[in-house]
Amino acid sequence: MQAGFAMVEAGFTRAKNTGNIIMKNLMDFCIGTCTFILIGFSLLLGEDMVGLIGKPGFDIFTSYADFDWSNFVFNLVFCATTATIVSGAMAERTKFLSYCIYSGVISALIYPIEAHWIWGGGWLAQMGFHDFAGSCAIHMVGGEILVPEGCPGFFAELWGFPPELFSVGFRSPSGEIIPRIPARLGQMQNIPFFLDRTHIELYYEVIQSTSGSQLIFLRFVMPTPGIWTIQVYASGNTRSEFHLWLPISGFVSSNISFLMPDPYTTITAPGNSPYVITAGAYDAYSKSIYLNSGRGYTRNQQVKPDLCAPGVKVSGPGIRDSYVQRDGTSVAAALTAGSCALLMEWGQKLPVPRYLSTYEMKNLLIRGAIRNPDLFYPNREWGYGTLDIYQVFRAISTT
Question: Which residue in 55, 90, 103, 393 has a CA-CA distance of 20 to 30 Å to 82?
């Protein structure tokens, strides 16, 4: 798991910091193992003391033969995972020594104590609280959204599927907690914080007019820098699935990020509409997907993108009779639009002129798309393949 985290975070950092982030992931496990052996494991699963912590002990040294090693290794991996979650948010922002100190503290004290509340017979377990897979004990310890210094504000949207009714609560970087705010039809509320100058504008739209799904709109005004936690609550025991998005690049500071971002289901409107042709971007020189290209599928599991077009170092006209190179899915969309124009022109010059609909053009482009034999299609990165207008005409002229 540490190797997987290291590869993911290395891909999101600059080349000069790759060695640093890989070493941080290695030290998570090295430092975490030592501190978890010395104190963390006993605080987690030792004899319960007033529901808060486990009784410190050294059974791992005094009862070597009878010690439950499988349980120790199982919880050690969870401890290392908890520490590593935050490393992505701290990448390129902290010195190596500072990160090592953080790793030791969270492995020795923070994770074992809060996990004891849930899995070690602590006060939450005594109240009947259950966390089967670590979504609270592990992931919520890492928080949710990292906010940098000097941020005037940002917004986020949470979309939930019916029949569940979702509601939210908050925890600020200073530790102030806003408990669950029940969801009501058309509710708007301004939530002030006493320990921070922040306030949050909350809007519940229980049934969104065009999709029928629930929308929770959150606007953070003058947020305190640090890690903000959004706690999401479901009303029942049915399909508890939701998606939470920050704005696209250019509409929010690049330093505002989720601690555990998911690159999938990131194709934004109008690209997630079934009535449009959606193009992802790839590098035509290296044949690799463009890092910032939105990934599918949509939250309704509709196949998007439909295909990918070149979107890296594409030459085009600039100002004052110049040519410049551009990157991005906007470039890929322009090339796809040009291909559609060629298809429209072809349809008009048939013996019996034909006006091609969006669906017809989409399926013609999909038929002609180039597909890598080593991949399964459709997939979340490439859709049905890469754009090739020549292959479109070959596909419809041969059987």
Answer: 55
